[in-house]
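Could you please consider the sequence and fold appended to this message?
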Amino acid sequence: MNETRTLPASPDVDPRDDDAVDLAPLIAAHGPVPELRAATQARAEALVRAIREEGHPSIMEKFLGEYGLSSEEGVALMCLAEALLRVPDAATIDDLIEDKIAGSRWDAHLGQSESSLVNASTWGLYLTGAVLREERSGSLADTLRGAVRRLGEPVIRTAVTRAIREMGRQFVLGTTIEGAMSRARGFAARGYTFSYDMLGEAAMTDADALRYHASYAHAIAAIAAEAGGDIRDAPGISVKLSALHPRYETRQRETVMATLVPRLASLVHQAKEAGIGLNIDAEEDSRLDLSLDVIENVVADEALAGWDGFGVVIQAYNRRAAQVIDRVHAMAERHDRRIMVRLVKGAYWDTEIKHAQVTGLDRFPVWVTKPATDASYLCCARKLLGCDDRIYPQFATHNAHTVAAVQEYAEAAGVTSFEFQRLHGMGEALYDHVLKGNAHRCRVYAPVGHHRDLLAYLVRRLLENGANSSFVNQIFDASMSPAEIAADPFAAVEAGLVRPARIQLASELFAPARRNSRGWDLDDPETVDLLAEEVARRAGGDWHAGEGEGTETAVLNPATGERVGTAIFATADAARAAVAATRPWDAPVEERAAALERAADLYEANAAEIFARCTREAGKTLLDGVAELREAVDFLRYYAAEARRLDAAGETVAGRGVFACISPWNFPLAIFTGQIAAALAAGNGVVAKPAETTPLTAALGVALMHEAGVPADVLRLVPGTGAEVGAALAADPGVAGLAFTGSTATAKRIEVARAEAAPGAPLIAETGGLNAMVVDSTALPEQAVRDIVASAFQSAGQRCSAARILYVQDEVADDLMAMLFGAMEALVIGDPVDPAVDVGPVIDETALAKIAAHVEAARASGRLLRQVDPPDLPGTFAGPAAIAVSGIEDLEEEIFGPVLHIARYRAEDLDRVVDAINAKGYGLTFGMHSRITDRIEQVVARISVGNVYVNRNQIGAIVGSQPFGGHGLSGTGPKAGGPRYLPRFTAAPQVGLPAETAAEAHPEADPQRLAGALAALAVPALDPAGLADLPGPTGESNRYGTVGRGPVLCLGPGAARAEEQAAAARAAGAAALAAAPGSPEIDGHVAPEALTALPALAAVVYEGDDPAPYARALAARQGPIVPLLTGADFARWCVREVAVSVDTTAAGGNADLLAG
């Protein structure tokens, strides 16, 4: 089967020319001759004219013809349709309607866009019918607001809900199979037959899968009553394989084959007995190989001999479509079957483009232009017509040119056994005309299901058919001629119109500054098998880290307890000697940057070795190992590019001296590399201490950086314990700056040591968080649960960004938690050397004991909602757990493992929930699932965290796209992978003002007045509108900006300098206060010991010659690290950074991509 996976690429051709390159052999083999093309064009134009003269567009065709989806408002419409009918509470329904129709964002675009949807006030009339009758000259927002004033929100709510239900009814034949069949009889009288599709999302739990299976079985039994005779004339059913198994994915192949094949086989046998056809719907490309395996296993059953009702769907937009036809034809020959093949354009185009970009794949699995897809469809149609000995072709299209082409091709080939298919609610005028001659069968693909199930389906159809370039949008557009509408796609291919300039390759997402990291396709069976073999071949045992004198320590695999290597743990003296022997890297900026880029290339070239060490030393799954390597590579290239950028801008890119980099075990390569890369790019020397549990991966990273050209006396690896080596580095005056990632408690100990050793030197600390996610009643449960599971349990919950508490709106909490618990049960826990494993071990026995104690305490108090049983293996495995809490107030500390706390909240309490999260003092990540844009923006402005994630998971920040880091108890900033990180490693000019004279020479500042003045400062709030876009994949919005810190205390020395400092801090956006003898703000000397007792401080600025007393006083404070800013660049650090990442496809798809 894997032969279908091969996608040959010419090394001499730009990958963006793939459409032209890959189409050439397809067109050569199956493209029509010029005479056929000419006949098709003439026939298509005649068909368009006939439809215009005789046909009447359906309600939805009128709607889509008038209102495009190329605008922000079009997306709002989709979101309203997608979310409204599942929202249970009236208040949220009202908020959703106001957000999508009457909000200020809509007003801002009225009359400004080319989209008719934006400019037409008739949309409100169309949507809400007689309830919202107004003069057409009024604006939509005024129309709705006026109606609300007159009629009240309940009437508007009812009207909009009814209108959205009516939209759904245009696409969905019935809410039950019986109702759909009853409604279908009217169409059957006109010559149509039907294929019924039972609506629903992919199964998230095994209970979902069993429910969908029962629904299919019930439908087949009902349809059987109308079967009989030729199976081609009988109604049929379409089945989605992802509905029959909750883990329908490549890496779960073994369990899929064991469970899904018999489930599908039972339905197939039932369909055979009923005398109806059963089609397997096509899904994402990532499932194609697995689908073919499942299909072959079922088709091979000898009990199906003589039955011609088994069908598959092939998507012409997939580059492998022609190969799949060959595979299905060979399958039919091998098992002596005749298989139905429904050829469709394809329904997941935007998803496939985003997936390729996100995963770093430089070849898209689909054609990236409409002409290429259309040409592929026609070539595949000719190919199918030539396979009619074993295949019954079914052509699903709403395009007159395609219909005409199939008719011409079939007549030329002498083939009469085929049928056309259309979607219910679409293409009626076209096929009513086709059926007039009774020359061809026509089947209607008819969705069946409750309104709550139609939402994703409805939006997908809107995306497919609502783009301005679609035939449905054009057929009744009088401004377009029949020749334009029925244009020959082969002519566009010949004209070179198959190169999409605006769709970036994955490697180009951050161009021209740098190349993106390469990805590995973990949905490709061959890739997964190869990587698994490479990891298995590298069992470790002889890996080593460290040199010189010290204690040889065994490094253990947390999944097995086996030794994977050894490390020489240095002594404190050895650590100090390493600092003394390390020199700053004073090479030119370009030389440094080039070396880091060579290191990135070497990292990628040694991927298998890196994956093996991440798996065996850190317990990482293959998925996490790939992400780890990619992040490390991105850090190397990003900081190289940043050094060049700063240098070109005239900024100083010179190091401070020797930096100590102390990294954690949970990202033994990525964070380790990121700290070092920034320090090296800035021109520092580096002494790097990896976590004591993961020195072997770090040793490989250092070896590759040395090989790339980083001098050995510039970068030194010093493995050891935190208590000895970490403490020695923190206390060493020769360390000019220290970067640390780890626990908040350890960061505070380092702060105390640095205050004595190097007061005012940079301490860049990234610590943990009590990270929350909020899910309101507009969220799609399946999507939310998928993201909750990833956020809380991926990497065994051992990410500082992981979700620790989930707030669920009360009205949907029971259903969502039931789905979540089922999804937890579907997780595979075990040794990550197996690619099927989702959750590996926690790092060691100490971590496991802490997690176990926390879970047991919850169990004892009756708050344990669910825990998945860990495997009976020798490693340190913790079963994912969910614990009930009343709110974040119940959490005393971060539990670093697969433990999620769950609280319910009422919609009206959302602000209080956000305030409670802020009150804990952490500020790392926050996630939100909602369809209400205004609500999201309000929460983004109110929440005090570094990284906000909307309608997606809250882990896996991408370098340069989602700069990562927090504030408060979560760290000092600046954000890793962001524009402010590298400058913190560079030498800052020192003013070196003299220290004040003895304290007794100046009156001391009144402590109460000082505390009151600080408390009175208004801490700046984030304005989301002020955030700037960062590059990233399509289907995502990644925005970044800063907000001033507050309060910032400016101490001069001297009144004049204190006032200058406060003015500079305020100019940066901070809330600042000057305090010095003679200052008009606070007159008096602020003694260092006074800082210990002051209320909340964000930073202290002091540029005197002796900052040590102030540094010691700040280090003695409880709570967050308060930086002492001593350099002339202090204003740069008087802000905190915020990054907001939004999945813009959450409502069902990316209209921006499809509109082009």
Notes: The CA atoms of residues 417 and 1123 lie 78 Å apart.
